[in-house]
Amino acid sequence: MVDIHVRTKAMIFRKTRNADRPRIDQLVKVHFPPNRQNRAVGIMRQGRLPIPAYSVVATLQGVVVGSIDFYSVVLPSGAVVPLLGPVVVDAGQRNKGLGRALVEHGLHQVAGREDGILIVGVESYYVLYGFQTACVKNMQLQGEIAPFVLMGLEFEHGVFCREKGTITKSV
C-alpha cells in the first residue's frame, strides 16, 4: 500500500495502517460515549473494518492525533455507498482545524469515486461541506441517532432522493 502524505502545520496525513487501529480505537473510546456501539451508526460499524482506500490518519511526530474512516452501507435499492465517520481528533489538537482538514481530505478522496456519502452528525457542522437532510428524508437507519441527524452529500444528483426505506450494513 502506498501512503498519501499531505503536510499541514507539521501534520502528516496518510492512509490508515492496521498498526494505527489500536490508537484510533483509543481516541474513539475517549471522545465518544460508551453506548456508541448500541446506537445506529455503531451497529452499522460493528464487526467491520472501514474502507481502506478512504481511511486516513493525521500524525504529529509519528503519533496518530486524528482519524477519519468510512464504512460501506447499503441503500434500500441495494446500492452501496460510504458512511462517513467517525472523525476523531486528540484533545490536545482540537480547535486547530484538524477535524475540518480531515473531513475535507476525506471528501476529496471519495469525490469522483462514489455517487454520494452519508453521515450521521451535527447538521450545523456538516452543512458547511454540502451535506443535506432533504435528500435523505425517506431513508432511515435501524436504531437511535438523536440528537444527530442523517445527512447525505450527493456527487450524482438524485442518488439519495430516489431512495426510500432502511439503510443497512454491507456484508
N/C terminus separation: 23 Å
**Mean pLDDT value:** 90
Q: Give the proportion of residues in helices.
A: 10-25%
Main structural class: alpha+beta
| Structural shape | globular
Number of helices: 4
What fraction of residues sit in β-strands? 25-35%
Radius of gyration: 15 Å
Main sheet attributes: strand count, strand direction, barrel closure: 7 strands, mixed
> What ranges have pLDDT less than 50 throughout 5 or more consecutive residues?
1-7
List how many beta strands DSSP finds. 9
Give helix and strand order, one letter per element, not per position: EEHHEEEHEHEEE
Quick summary:
By secondary structure, this protein is of the alpha+beta class.
Tell me about this structure.
The protein has 171 residues and is of the alpha+beta class. Helix content is 20%, strand content 32%. It has four helices and nine strands, in the order ββααβββαβαβββ. It has helices at 21-31, 40-45, 98-110, 123-126, and strands spanning 6-8, 11-15, 56-60, 63-74, 80-89, 116-121, 139-141, 149-154, 165-169. The strands form two sheets. Strands 1, 2, 3, 4, 5, 7 and 9 form a seven-stranded mixed β-sheet that branches. Strand 1 (6-8) and strand 2 (11-15) form a beta hairpin. It is globular. The protein starts with 5 loop residues before the first strand and ends with a strand.
Blueprint (SSEs and pairs):
Layout: E1 6-8, E2 11-15, H1 21-31, H2 40-45, E3 56-60, E4 63-74, E5 80-89, H3 98-110, E6 116-121, H4 123-126, E7 139-141, E8 149-154, E9 165-169
Parallel strand pairs: 7-9
Antiparallel strand pairs: 1-2, 2-3, 3-4, 4-5, 4-9, 6-8
